What does this fold into?
Amino acid sequence: MDMSVISSVIKAIKNEPVTATMTINIQNEIVANASGEPMPLNDYAGKVMLIVNVASKCGFTPQYAGLEALNKKYAAQGLQILGFPCNQFGGQEPGTQAEIAEFCSMNYGVTFPVLEKVDVKGDYQSSLFKKLVAATGGGDVKWNFEKHLVARDGTVIKRFSSRTAPDSPELVGAIEQELAKIAEAGESGGWG
It folds into this structure.
């Protein structure tokens, strides 16, 4: 077995960030918005994305507040947070799309997109999450509120465990590093 894959698995078990072990690009993925309509991720070309599997009845649910704080602080610089509800961990997201949207808005003032409920592991795992976990080599998503950081060019770069708070120095630092890359490149970014 490849030593980089073994290292990534050990990091995932220890709840450490896992850096991408292979280059995988998600630019051609199509997901569904909260209304079930197709939404191509290339709509976010040129943005740094933080993709999070979320749930309303989880011990980590208060992370919605931290995710919204990141959204408010960095959206103008090019950060796009996408929440994907998932009911695979302890049945902690049983609601309908309308109930989920109302919960997020009323309890946490969420303004970033919370998309259609998906499976993040198992036989019906969404194509997007297959790519996210393959890129980081960290195995299955372990629980709600795992975070996947995607570069402006659509390549998956890091995965953070549920225990990594949205305001943690390692996550904020990784986001800021990716956001700064556009200034270094002197271009508008995008997927091409």
